[in-house]
Amino acid sequence: MARPRFLPDNFTLMLVATVVLASLLPVHGEGAIAFNLLTNFAIAALFFLHGAKLSREAILAGATHWRLHLLVFASTFAVFPLVGVAFKPVLSWLVTPELYLGVLFLCTLPATVQSAIAFTSIARGNVPAAVCSASASSLFGIFLTPVLVGLVVVHHDGNTGVSPFDSIGNIMLQLLVPFVAGQIARRAIGAWVERHRALLKIVDQGSILLVVYTAFSKAVNTGLWHQIPLLALGGLLVACAVILGIMLMFTTFASRWFGFSREDQITIVFCGSKKSLASGIPMAKVLFAGGPLGAIVLPLMLFHQMQLMVCAVLARRYANQQRAALANLGPVQGGKPAGHATAGSGNDAKAGAGR
């Protein structure tokens, strides 16, 4: 039986189920301590496996395209935070102060890796450059996100309890050290990790679900759903949609204005307009350990699903335009134009849905 088109992907359904479970059966007491330890272990394992999986050859293949990477980095770590700050007068009327902190945190995060590459492939963009840009964004985000949180989030709310310098140390200890250990171990276990991609997916999605469950359990225990009005949730959906729309337009028109090729434009759009759930939730756990974690990660969860749905439609549109253009050109020697990236199937986008 075919899956109904209106249903979201399995991971999104699991996220929703986890939030419902935490709302009905929140963990507390010694159980919360045990879940917290388990979550820390899962996150360390996740970044270790990502370090072992990341190919240095793939990164070097696209590393020379510095103009493209510079625009993606500017979109991710400069324009995004500026948009979040600029919308404060509007968002302060639409959402609660805790949710606005979550929006600001969302704007400081690195780009996605797997889903950005999958969408770039489907849309027939520059895949090697996407691999390099998205991977570098994820790595540099370990250092840049805590600094941006200190500059943007703490500047707008001094009660977060976040010290950017302490946070960088915690991030390095909990995320960067396992990642570097994975890179060092890549020679020994890299091939094994490549053969067992399903294991990485389980650790990836499992760590996120654990963080979401513990975060929302703590938030529910402190009265999360009594503190967030239904109107604020509606305002948050509007805010996420507007921010995503602005970034999609910015990356589209900026890439055209700077004269990038069509393939590079596609890469810039999908790498410069997306934010990483896989990196964001572990970072939130470290950065906001004493804060309203449930309310802070909620904007990221909504934005994550929204960006996947919109980018899936956009990727198919790019691919259809390319096919139409090739049909108008007629037969091409070799069956396809030189340098053209092989399109992935529709399932490729869902493969990156949890990242």
Model description:
This protein has 16 helices and no strands. The protein is mainly α. It has a single domain, classed as Na+/H+ antiporter like fold (Up-down Bundle), CATH 1.20.1530.20. One of its GO terms (cellular component) is plasma membrane. Pfam families: SBF_like. Keywords: Membrane, Transmembrane, Transmembrane helix. The chain crosses the membrane at residues 7-25, 31-49, 70-87, 99-119, 131-155, 167-186, 228-253.
Characterize this entry briefly.
The chain crosses the membrane at residues 7-25, 31-49, 70-87, 99-119, 131-155, 167-186, 228-253. The chain is an all-alpha fold.
Gross morphology is: globular
- pLDDT under 50 segments (min length 5)? 332-354
Percent range for β-strand residues: under 5%
Look at the structure and give the CATH class: Mainly Alpha
**CATH fold-level topology:** Na+/H+ antiporter like fold
Q: How many separate helices?
A: 16
Terminus-to-terminus distance: 27 Å
Rg (C-alpha, Å) = 20 Å
The major β-sheet equals: none
Mean pLDDT: 79
Structural class: mainly alpha
What's the total count of β strands?
0
